[in-house]
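Dear H.,

Thanks for agreeing to be a second pair of eyes. The structure we're designing against is below in token form, covering all 319 positions.
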């Protein structure tokens, strides 16, 4: 579960297994939102009671506007790779949120602790949502400039069916109990490792072989594909005399990668020829047996619908 923020070859993301370190009692890692009693969604798509929000792309990331506890509009990273919704420490302090525990975030090059706080109320164009908990990384305070106010993680995707339209730069939030997909897109079953969605894909290797592998879906990564070191080595995807390697930075430090392409990736009936890939030379965006993760640079070519309640992801090619 990672959130990649690449500038050139630099990637600041959180790859995101969350290991609970319970400072105060048991902490429910999966935030289902069952404790919420939200009012009916503001209706802009009457058949599904959807609220539609504009989003902007910032450094390859999908940023969604929202108000928190009556604040001015904040800009939040939309990230399927995060097990929790996050807020910048400055906001945690300003909103006077009560600390309830801590977790450890495991990244591409190490670990970082994060405080856990009672959930504030988010407002999406009049539609409220209150997660059970939010977290804050202390390292966010150390950055020279704030790149985001927070992150919408797995509990957000469990609360809504999230439809991302990259052509119109809008996100529709549907009520899961009344939502029904009726388009002609490719519906892909998803499973979960922890809180991160996983799909199966067919990969064509440089030697022409086809293998079926599992990939995390990570909307917070601005790359197309990030391939783990174990998979790179097993299939000899990087030649020793290949192109110069770059670096990626994330939780715990940085790691070396080499940029390149896979011959082909197939997601159901959808085929992507020569997708760009970051081949990890050390560390990994995922643990074996997963091959890697699929990021926003590939997903942006489709309308993407995440329906966690029905364990499916739908891809509609752009028209």
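And this is the sequence the design step returned. I haven't edited it by hand at all.
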């Amino acid at each position: 579960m990672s959130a990649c923020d690449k500038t050139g070859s630099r990637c600041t993301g959180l790859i995101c297994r969350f290991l609970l370190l319970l400072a105060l009692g048991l902490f429910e890692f999966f935030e289902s939102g069952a404790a919420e009693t939200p009012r009916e969604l503001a209706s802009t798509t009457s058949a599904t009671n959807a609220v539609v929000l504009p989003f902007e792309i910032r450094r390859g990331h999908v940023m969604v506007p929202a108000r928190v506890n009556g604040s001015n509009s904040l800009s939040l990273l939309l990230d399927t790779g995060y097990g929790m919704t996050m807020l910048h420490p400055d906001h945690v302090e300003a909103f006077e949120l009560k600390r309830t525990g801590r977790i450890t975030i495991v990244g591409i090059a190490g670990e970082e602790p994060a405080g856990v706080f009672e959930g504030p109320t988010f407002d999406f164009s009049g539609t409220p949502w209150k997660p059970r908990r939010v977290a804050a990384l202390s390292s966010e305070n150390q950055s020279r400039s704030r790149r985001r106010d927070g992150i919408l993680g797995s509990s957000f995707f469990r609360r809504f069916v999230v439809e991302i339209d990259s052509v119109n730069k809008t996100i529709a939030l549907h009520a899961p109990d009344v939502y029904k997909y009726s388009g002609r897109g490719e519906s892909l079953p998803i499973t979960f490792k922890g809180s991160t969605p996983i799909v199966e894909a067919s990969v064509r290797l440089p030697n022409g072989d086809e293998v079926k592998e599992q990939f995390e879906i990570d909307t917070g990564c601005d790359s197309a594909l990030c391939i783990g070191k174990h998979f790179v080595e097993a299939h000899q995807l990087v030649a020793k005399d290949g192109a110069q390697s770059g670096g990626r930075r994330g939780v715990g430090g940085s790691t070396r990668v080499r940029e390149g392409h896979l011959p082909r990736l197939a997601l159901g009936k959808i085929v992507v020829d020569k997708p760009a890939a970051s081949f990890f030379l050390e560390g990994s965006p995922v643990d074996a047996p997963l091959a890697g993760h699929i990021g926003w640079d590939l997903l942006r070519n489709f309308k993407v619908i995440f329906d966690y309640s029905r364990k499916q992801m739908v891809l509609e090619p752009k028209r």
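Two observations from my side: Residues 52 and 81 are 22 Å apart (CA to CA). The longest helix spans residues 89-94.

Warmly,
E.
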